[in-house]
């Protein structure tokens, strides 16, 4: 099957019109239309219905689209694997992860293992998109905070705290951990409800039979930290501190609140053994980084 034709098909699906796909692919529209018709002949069924504003997928086209995307993903992975093999077995690994995880964990890990470390590059993305980066073949493995898709192999590499971050003169600064029931009595600086850390904190509060009203809600991590450093309240984040803030884990009846970190990879990856070894080393690093986690 011609991968080029599959790319054409997927592009038309993504753009909704042959014209839009032709512009994106830099292919003449009549030529693209002929290529799509040729693919339909090869497949033995119609992919699109033509409508006044573009095209829509037929039932057969809808069933074939995930197959086409999967074939293209595997082709891209095969290409990147071949390049890595050609470059030598020592070629570095690429990891996909959220920006906070890269800043607080992946980057310090790279520094700690030195010049011969296994990670060569990172692809930063939103937490909800980390495994999509891996699925596209743009990374060799991923470190994510969400439960991994079943089609990938995964293992827990550690846990990262949710911190109560306070001004050094705040009474909480003298505590090794902050009880949740005391924390909700403070003016709290929290992220918006769409943020994963906020959702985890809210779930813990609800589970404990408590409640709170945010003093300040923001979408900016930097602003949340700055407001806490200015003495405006207690900031709830998983990010490392800045501006001299004191950080303490949040204690609940079930232990300190922490985010699970998953190492995720394709079990068929040519460097599977190296990936597992890297994740094992990363797990040891995380355990040293957050040694008091009660999990």
Q: Overall mean pLDDT score? A: 88
Shape: elongated
Percentage of residues in strands:
15-25%
Radius of gyration: 24 Å
Sketch the major β-sheet: 7 strands, mixed
What is the end-to-end distance? 50 Å
Beta strand count: 14
Determine the number of helices (DSSP H or I, runs of at least 4 residues): 10
Structural class: alpha/beta
Structural descriptors:
elongated; seven-stranded mixed beta sheet; 295 residues; alpha/beta; 10 helices; single chain; 23% strand; five-stranded mixed beta sheet
Concise summary:
This protein is of the alpha/beta class and 295 residues long. Helix content is 43%, strand content 23%.
Fold blueprint:
Layout: H1 3-15, H2 18-25, H3 29-43, E1 48-51, E2 54-57, H4 59-86, E3 93-98, H5 99-113, E4 119-125, H6 130-135, E5 141-144, E6 153-161, E7 163-166, E8 178-179, H7 180-183, E9 188-191, H8 196-207, E10 216-218, H9 221-229, E11 234-237, E12 246-252, E13 255-256, E14 258-265, H10 272-289
């Amino acid at each position: 099957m011609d991968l080029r034709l599959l790319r054409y098909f997927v592009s038309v699906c993504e753009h909704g019109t042959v014209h839009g796909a032709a512009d994106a692919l830099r292919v003449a529209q009549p030529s693209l239309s002929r290529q799509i018709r040729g693919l339909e002949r090869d497949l033995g069924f119609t992919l699109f219905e033509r409508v006044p504003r573009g095209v829509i997928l037929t039932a057969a086209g809808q069933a074939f689209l995930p197959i086409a995307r999967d074939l293209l993903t595997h082709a891209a992975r095969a290409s990147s694997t071949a390049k890595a093999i050609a470059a030598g077995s020592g070629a570095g690994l690429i990891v996909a992860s959220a920006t906070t995880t890269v800043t607080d964990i992946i980057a310090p890990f790279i520094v700690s293992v030195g010049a011969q470390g296994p990670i060569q590059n990172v692809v930063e993305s939103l937490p909800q998109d980390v495994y999509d980066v891996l699925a596209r073949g743009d990374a060799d493995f991923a470190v994510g905070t969400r439960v991994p898709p079943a089609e990938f192999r995964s293992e827990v590499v550690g846990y990262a705290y949710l911190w109560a971050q306070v001004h050094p003169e705040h009474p909480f600064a003298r505590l090794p951990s902050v009880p949740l029931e005391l924390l909700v009595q403070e003016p709290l600086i929290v992220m918006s409800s769409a943020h994963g850390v906020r959702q985890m904190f809210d779930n813990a509060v609800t589970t404990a039979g408590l409640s709170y009203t945010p003093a300040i809600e923001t979408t900016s991590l930097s602003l949340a930290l700055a407001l806490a450093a200015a003495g405006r309240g207690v900031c709830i984040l998983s990010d490392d501190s800045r501006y001299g803030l004191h950080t303490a884990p949040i204690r609940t009846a079930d232990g300190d609140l922490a985010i699970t970190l998953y190492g995720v990879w394709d079990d068929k990856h040519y460097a599977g053994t190296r990936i597992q070894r890297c994740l094992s080393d990363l797990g040891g690093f995380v355990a040293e980084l957050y040694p008091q986690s009660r999990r």
